Amino acid sequence: MKHVLFLLLAGVLAAGCMRAREPFRLAPIFSDHAVLQRQQPIRIWGWGAPGATVRVRLDTLTAQARVDVDGRWLVELPPQEAGGPYTLVAESNGMRHVVEDVLIGEVWVASGQSNMEMPLMPRLAGWSSSDSVVGATEAVRTADDPQLRLLTVERAVALTPLDTFGGTWQVASSQTVATFSAVAYFFGRRLREALGVPVGLIHSSWGGTPAEAWTGRDHLRELEDFQEILARLEAAEPLLHELEAWRSQLHQMMVPSGQDTTFWATLDLNDASYAENPAPDSLVMGIPARWEDANLGAFDGVVWFWRRVQVPASWLGRTLVLELGPIDDMDRTYFNGQQIGGYEQPGYWNMPRRYRVPAALVQQDNLVAVRVIDTQGGGGLWGEPAQLRLYPEGEPEAAQSLAGSWHYWPVAELVGRRLYVFGEGALSYAGRPKLPVALGPNTPTTLFNGMIHPLLPYSIRGVIWYQGESNVGRATQYEQLFPTLIRCWRAHWQLGDFPFYFVQIAPYDYGPNAHAERLREAQLRTMLTVPRTGMVVTTDVGDDHNIHPARKREVGERLARWALANDYGFRDLVYSGPIYERMEREDGRLRLYFRYAEGGLVLRPADGGGEFVIAGPDRVFHPARVRVEGETLVVWSPRVSDPQAVRYGWSNTPHATLFNRAGLPASPFRTDDWPEGD
Asked: What's the predicted TM-score (pTM) here?
């Protein structure tokens, strides 16, 4: 998914002497409208001159600390009940920071990939037109709630742990929730309704990212699969510092955040010259292709592409049609130096480009020039070869293919919200220091370093998590990786085994070799083995053809059920769908037992809808017949005389047919442990 931007930083500040020169400051998480966790020690920290005394006041509470030799200070105020608004004041060496409108209540971190990141109004944040959230219009209209506070952590990639981040707290309103995580918002709204206390939501997620990117190096090194890449990353640290120093010499431009989508359309980096004259030292790339898969690699920013096209004499004086396939993310396209089209707002990364070429521009020797802007992830002209072509209007059968070698030249690099404009000679792209390993949001540890570590040690109640799609195909690894991530976060936060509730990935057609059912099984096993975890099942609210299902309200509210029942005393609230527990053999049939089936199971439709299959000793599965008997299921098939195993929802696209009386769907499961692909 293409939207928003990210920050590539090289790590923490190097030494205490650098810290000594820093002015006194608070950690950025303490901004106006912040929510502090109730009933836990309140940790407040920042930086200053080593040895200086820091005094902190929150309402009537006061504390003081001395800045350590590394330039960091921290105070801990005693636990408080919900309340506010308060003023937070921190003072040292004559400097004073004041944070207004601070509340005390419940604080949760929401993290993961695109299904957590997806906002209530996706189009406002540059998402595809195919993505939407059911009920979003009404949710935004009624969103004003001064007791609900939202903080979105700006995207950041870092090789070593960062201390700071971009983003500030906001009060929930029709203006602020529209581009905030839909799942997190519905979760927080439900907590507000049930608890009646302030709620703070810290949203830190990034679409398309794998779990290893969110796991710290100290824990990830416990897993054999990641030893080699971690060693390579450690070796790359000096070169990354060199790259940062080189960038510091370039002209820089700040890219607006939020809903401002005019920046790219008005950006001019000597475009008229590039449109007419390819760079003399330009490189060559086979098109179509994601440039991450070519020599350009993990690069975000502005890249020009050129191709000369000879056309038959019979085409002269005729209007032509230029098709370029989809361009990730934005383009401005020229024909013989004249702009003929472009998509210059986020959200059109998968839109095939089709532009008319006026007859007056057509020559026998023509230059097609395309300015491509990629804001994160994959970039370039990435469709199918047949989508790149030029032909006279009305005669597509006469098309001339444009697939093949194109010249290209990067002219500016996007790093977070900062655009670094390349110069000439040693400051051109050719002089850019090269890294031996790709650094991006998919690189192990980088998002933990850039987007989780800066939040530490802020007191929180717990975490909600929606991720896994990017690890489909590596389920066996995920069975170790996901619990390691949870253990990592708990160790670094130093708040004990705080609740960690997550969403099982939704049905989606990943293709016949994906085995998404195994990833769901890995998530289920995490819930069954890791203390104080819980899992939301989504087999009834998915979309086989869109990896971003629109029914986010159910997901957020089901996560809230786990929290309300297990952390806030709502003991009568059913918070999980049926979870397979064990089976017994009964005269050619199998009886299955479940947790969370109190009051009886429900089949919709009554025959199970074909989601159940059964196998005998030959391990060949056949459609099963199913009957509910109270809190158990009886499963059989006339074709299986000696049943050994049952599977339910065992596919990429399971559709829920088994529920409990609370209407919550059962997790897909299998009763066997027969070898399976990831």
From this structure: 0.90
